[in-house]
Amino acid sequence: MATAVVSDDELEAIHQASLDVLRETGIAVLLPEARQMLADAGCVVNAETEMVRFDPEMIADYMASAPSEFTIEARNPAHNVRIGGDNVVFGSVASAPNVSDAAGGRRTGNHADFKNLVRLTQHLTAVQTNGGYPVEPSDLHASIRHLHAIDDLVTLTDKSLNAYSLGAERNRDALEIIRLAHGLSEDEVDQHTVVHSVINVSSPLRLDHPMCTGIVEYSSRNQCIIITPFTLAGAMAPVTVAGAVVQQNAEALAGLTLTQVVRRGAPVMYGGFTSNVDMKSGSPAFGTPEYMKSAMIGGQLARRYGIPYRSSNVNAANAVDAQAAYESVFSLWGAVMGGANLIFHGAGWLEGGLRASFEKMVLDADLINMVAEFLTPVATDSDSLAVKAIDEVGPGGHFFGVQHTQDRYRNAFFAPMISDWRNFETWEEAGSPTADQKAAELVSTLLDEYQQPPMPDNRRAAIDDFVARRVAEGGVETDF
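User: That's the sequence. What structure does it adopt?
Assistant: Structure tokens below.
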């Protein structure tokens, strides 16, 4: 279903301009180890400015080794996700500092809400992978937060998951917990891609220490890295869509090349996250026409390089309202028509990423299911063409009672969780429930229905022992 919004010649112009940026200007790489790896691979490195300049032929050589498809394995093999090709995988909201629901309003992220959002991720079939921390559990100290969060992710769900790249120790701790949950030996980890991690380029043109470390740690172990520049046109990137995408592409190519320098054939994804700012306030804007065009061009570039593509379902609304709905539809449509293989923040994102919303999560699940049904091919076999049913009903009749309809009664059309298709009078008699009210009721129902997936006792005990030991050691060093 991928749609091109620029011609092949225009796409090549964007690609060549990106190569010009990397050859002439370069990108700051703040981790000395990464700079040395790139220098050894043929890059020109200025040790004083930390700038790294890339040769276009070297980029082409290393990009050719990136896989076009791969599988991210879940604890439950039934939830493995295939990345690339025509596959589309939806992830949950991630990285929000705040959380909200109808009952409690907006509040700082905390461990209890974190766990309930993870439970929703497990229960909603529209969401196939955990996107990361759905909300920051800020009541857990930063030194040990990752230990409890990854523990929750591998026990409350059995779907594939994301781990943040915020330093080597956190990377290693997360991979160890996931290894234990999967029952893998240390030697087996490199043959199984069991985690994905987003690497955000610090736009413009900078790969910082934690992000470089994440690439080195996870690519070396054959784990999935998603290079995602965070480029906002007019603020951290040129104000034009083409200029912003040129910068996005240059930053993405630099990060993608580094993954292959670390380990040829390591699984990677091209992440597009270019949007614009409100020029009056400077605030990020999402679900805009500019976001949609950038998302679709990003998909064209990823296909040009033959690697999977990541996009997002985002909005900048401050409430679960009409703005949230139409901006999400626009951004989701840009991602899907852009050919995205993994859609981050698929369910639950609100307030420009500053808030995870329980109600928005179930509303987005409905929207995702609608998109999935739209992407399902139309059946044109003889039975679906229904010539006999049309003949049976004839002029002026109806199809409610014919066998052709009755045989398909339950699965004839998409059945939404939220949408209300009753007439006004019936809807009014039922108390005039609005979409956000129905979503709030559904959140409670879904959490009541949640069942924790089983885990073998020996794996559970091994995780408990590891987490307890690392917590007793103090976790990782922090500045606060």
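The chain has a mean pLDDT of 95.
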